[in-house]
Amino acid sequence: VNGAGRNGEIRANVALVSRKNDAMLWSKEFERAAACGADLEESLAFAAARVLDCAIEEASGEYGRLREELRRTYLNACSLLTEVGWDSRSVLPELQLVAEKTPRFRPAWARLLNAQSDYVSLLQALGKDRVSAKADLKSLIARARKFHPDMAEITLGELTLNPGLPVSRSVALVEQAKAQDPHNVAVLIAHSQEM
Length: 195
What we know:
globular
């Protein structure tokens, strides 16, 4: 971490390095106005936590392992997810690349489906045309279903595609997602919203 800044700004660097071969897996520089130290710490903490979570998922091997360049792409995408909010357009290509190159790697599909669903929801909230974004989500759901038919993110994506469902049907979908992955944060948020 570098506390010194230029032009009245503070800077911090954080990096994730492989213990096995000292390879740099991910790094990011954060910069904020000197008066925004807490904001810098929060941004750094969120990004580092998300990247560590993704790195642990990948390192576990539960869903396979990624090649080195895809691992870096995936970890960078995980970091970006902490910054983009609902407008996830900038991170979609990276997640899609990882999911397509390693289709059995379920965490990439999960994050991709959530990001595309968030983008569709953003367009809906802004009253903008979402036909293309919904078509992309529908296509991603179909492709993910071939490898991971029981993913809660697929069920949540279906809910996003059909925002005007009767309450009984939308509640049934979030209950299904909760049964598929009861500890999934996105599922728990969707479940509480529907309730």
